[in-house]
Amino acid sequence: MTLEPDLLLHAYRTGIFPMAEHRDDTEIFWVDPRRRGVMPLDGFHISRSLARRLRRDDYDITLNHDFEGVMEGCADRSETWINGEIRGLYRELFALGHAHSLEVWIEGALAGGVYGVVVGRAFCGESMFSRRRDASKIALAWLVDQLRRAGFTLFDTQFLTPHLASLGAVEITRSTYRQRLAEALERDANLLSVPLAVCGHDVVQRNTQTS
After folding, report:
1. pLDDT (tens digit, 9 = 90+) per residue, 167-179?
2. Can you tell me the distance from the alpha carbon of 14 to that of 3, in angstroms, rounded to the nearest whole number?
3. Which of the residues 31, 45, 181, 197 has an alpha carbon 20 to 30 A from that of 4?
4. CA 88, CA 12: separation in Å to the nearest integer?
């Protein structure tokens, strides 16, 4: 299947997303889960240990600074659904301003991150990775803070994993997801409309106030 960016964006707006069986598979198929993972933007769980880690501020956070590096980190595992065509497609979406990445840097090296696609007020998370302890948790905490302040209403995680569940993610039915997606598509939100948090303490404090 050969995809174009416009078709891919249309797919997200209808609630489906593409995957491949593995990195060397040339075939892409559409996925429409019966039960969808979502991260409630007012229900992100920051444990006491994660709060301490966030407040240490011994890391740096950037937006869209190394999209390619984040994709590479997400695909750098023994089993991955990110094949060459998918990487090329998301590079195009990034160039067009529809895909975004959030990066975590520790001691000058890319330690973790997350990337996804924006449609309306929905952020469709595609994948995340971590090379240092807690890096993916830090990335998600900062991303949730950014999405909430930028006016997003839906953070789609596609599936519910134990890691995401420990941070507050839940499963909803396909019909509920589509209803929430339709509401999110009624208006647009811009991930870059607000600056990143000044420090990890601010991320923890705002999360405490809203959760």
Report:
1. 999 999 999 999 9
2. 16
3. 181
4. 17
pLDDT for the residue 23: 63
Is residue 196 scored above 90 in pLDDT?
yes
Phi, psi for residue 17 in degrees, rounded to 5: -145, 160
Give the tokens for residue 98: 């529809």
CA separation, residue 113 to residues 45, 103, 116, 132, 192 (Å) = 18, 4, 11, 11, 17
When pLDDT is averaged across residues 100-114 and rounded to a whole number, the result is 98
Place of tokens 């750098």: 76
Specify the residue for token string 């990335």: 139
Distance CA 104, CA 200 (A): 12
State both tokens at 206: 């705002």
List the structure tokens of 186: 């009624």
pLDDT above 90: residue 133: yes
- Asked if residue 5 lies in contact with residue 96, where contact means CB atoms within 8 angstroms, the answer is yes
**Is the whole-model pTM more than 0.85?**
yes
Cα angle 74, 164, 5 (rounded to 5 degrees) comes to 45
DSSP 163: H
* Beta bridge mates, 19: 29
For the purposes of burial, counting CB atoms within 10 Å of the CB of 59, is it exposed (0-12), middle (13-18) or buried (19 or more)? buried
User: Token pair of 8, please?
Assistant: 């891919």
